[in-house]
Design brief:
By secondary structure, this protein is mainly alpha-helical. The chain folds into 2 domains: 96 residues, no CATH class; 216 residues, no CATH class. The protein is built from 13 helices and no strands. Helix 10 runs parallel beside helix 13. Keywords: Membrane, Transmembrane, Transmembrane helix.
Length: 320
Amino acid sequence: MREALFIKQNTEKWKAYEINKPTDPDELAAAFIAITDDLAYAKTFFPQSNTTKYLNGLASTFHQDIYKNQKEKSNRFATFWRYELPMLFFQHRRQLLYSLIFFLVFTCMGVLSAKYDNHFVRLILGDDYVNMTNDNIAKGDPFGVYKSTSSGLMFLMIAINNVYVELRFFVMGIFFSVGSLYASLMNGVMLGSFQYYFFSKGLGIQSILVIWIHGTLEMSSFIVAGGAGLVLGNSLLFPKTYTRMQSLKKGALEGLKITIGLIPIILLAAFFESFVTRHTEMPVWLSIIILASSLAFVIWYVILYPAKLNKSLSYINTDH
């Protein structure tokens, strides 16, 4: 994008920030994020221009208001999860929606394949897992696999694996988004066949109450990571007014931020799987509370809160 076009697209927003600086802490932080994003772009592509100097000065005034008498590092950490990450969710909501749709379609493919092909479950999950689970079902403990390893070791193994899977969703997006869709295909088909297996054994509802204690956060994170991969891939496919390299840098940075932001959720899911899911005898009401709370958190943090935050930012731009 040329500097003149960059200035034309953003001048009114900058002037609004300069003349009517918001006093509400949430609005002030949201405005600061928007300014620093523009400043980062200007520093990258117009490092010696007056535009960069102007934005640097504007960002400095906001910085002083937000961080005065506080430690910058700790506040930057909190600001990322409170403002920056949710705004990225809103900005790339279409990619997140596409990732969800594809994942659901691939999961349905796994269900149908398992239903109409008796060998499909073994092909996807492996003979060892199926045989072990069949033995556990015969013993009256169908989810005994979650009790087979010490909680601490299990947490470490699951956390490492799930962070790897999440990063794979994102990094494979570099292959023009097709790579992330492939990762979604593999995980969606596995989930579908896995879930159908338990329903075919008459353990469908019980499997939901047990497995989705951790699965809600885990699968949600993978879907969002798939969306981050689409952000990366689409930056190559659809550069818009940017050069392809500029678009790729921007998409890679924003997709990486989304991916890194998911790590605490991934770790919480691993904690649930290692320390909570193993208690298959827990009351149904407790399982439902954990499931509902996890789902409500995902919907709020990824969809509702970002929309509310964007509305506040839009109010600053138009009415102040």
